[in-house]
Design brief:
12 helices, three-stranded parallel β-sheet, 330 residues, globular, TIM Barrel, seven-stranded parallel β-sheet, alpha/beta, disordered C terminus
Length: 330
């Protein structure tokens, strides 16, 4: 209890935890997780306020990805029942964006399967769709298109994309256990291209891949160093047919502990519970909003369903938080 209080006081006083101090928090007993969550909530309130950023995703192009990420239902290395389809046309993407807007989202992220946009003939159509959504809705438009070149990053920024989504997935050390067809440095190259073009980053990862607590701390510290604005934390949903289909589920309280520690390390960022929260947290989903979280992915995910957005808005209100108002980016 003293460790939790002393480290929380350090963060609330404006200082940054060291790697060794953050690791101390991973050893706390289950009986003290609610105390850790309470202090994470105080840190969130002081540094990030009480608003919650509500974002929806659109699976704009699905399946047949050339990469071997062990968790992914869209990888060509896996045999799943995931839908396979080419890039949706601009009108269909606009329709889905308007549906997300009607559900209460203030931000939309267009996501495509595949390694990335380098040499991809769909890129110009995606830019056109972003222009259309940006001009015909109140939504802030993000993009999650895999690897991009510096020139493509500038094109996206000029089209109105203010935030580029590109997860690191896990720590640099553990990453080769999860993907071998492209490297951690490849992902950093895309992140740096997006930043150089003036875009913010939506960069996080997945927990429950078999990583250690130290790997989670290393990921959080990498995100801290990169000055990431929004941090989606997915919780593995082990989909049948993927390499990780037999992975044991994380304990809900360990998930809460992970979110709280991320808030200690990243006090002023958007920390966003994402895919897998409904399946893994079950009745404890509301608790995550009292453990430092201040963002949500609402609606459906890329290859599996979420829950009704109205339930998430109620959860946010019940936690004493406020869904963020529209702030249209010029």
């Amino acid at each position: 209890m003293n460790i939790i209080k002393n480290l929380a006081d350090k963060v609330l006083g404006g200082s940054t935890l060291t790697r060794a101090e953050a690791l101390q928090l991973t050893y706390i007993e289950r009986s003290d997780i609610l105390l850790l969550a309470a202090y994470a909530n105080k840190i969130r309130e002081q540094y990030a306020g009480n608003t919650v950023d509500m974002c929806a995703v659109i699976n704009a192009r699905s399946g047949l990805c050339s990469e071997d990420c062990k968790f992914c239902a869209q990888s060509c290395y896996h045999h799943t029942n995931t839908a396979v389809y080419p890039l949706l046309d601009s009108e269909e993407l606009l329709k889905k964006a308007r549906e997300a807007e009607d559900s209460g989202a203030t931000r939309i992220s267009l996501v495509t399967s595949g390694r990335g946009m380098v040499g991809d003939s769909d890129f110009e159509r995606i830019v056109e769709a972003i222009h259309t959504i940006h001009s015909k809705t109140r939504l802030s438009v993000c993009a999650n298109l895999g690897s991009i070149t510096p020139l493509q990053a500038r094109c996206l920024a000029a089209a109105g994309v203010r935030r580029y989504a590109h997860n690191l997935e896990t720590s640099r050390r553990f990453y080769p256990e999860i993907c071998t067809t492209h490297s951690y440095l490849d992902r950093l190259d895309t992140i740096q291209a997006a930043q150089a073009a003036g875009m913010e980053l939506c960069t996080g990862g997945i927990i429950g891949l078999g990583e250690s607590w130290e790997d989670r701390i290393m990921l959080a510290l990498e995100l801290q160093k990169l000055k990431v604005a929004s941090i989606p934390i997915n919780i593995l949903n082990p989909i049948a047919g993927t390499a990780l289909e037999g992975s044991p589920p994380l304990r809900p309280l360990d998930i809460v502990k992970t979110f709280a520690i991320f808030r200690f390390l990243l006090p002023d960022r958007v920390i966003r519970p994402a895919g897998g929260r409904e399946i893994n947290l079950r009745d404890l989903q509301g608790l995550i909003m009292l453990a430092g979280a201040n963002g949500l992915i609402i609606g459906n995910y890329l290859t599996f369903k979420g829950r009704h957005a109205a339930d998430d808005f109620m959860m946010v209100h019940d936690a004493g938080l406020i869904p963020a108002d529209y702030v249209k980016e010029n």
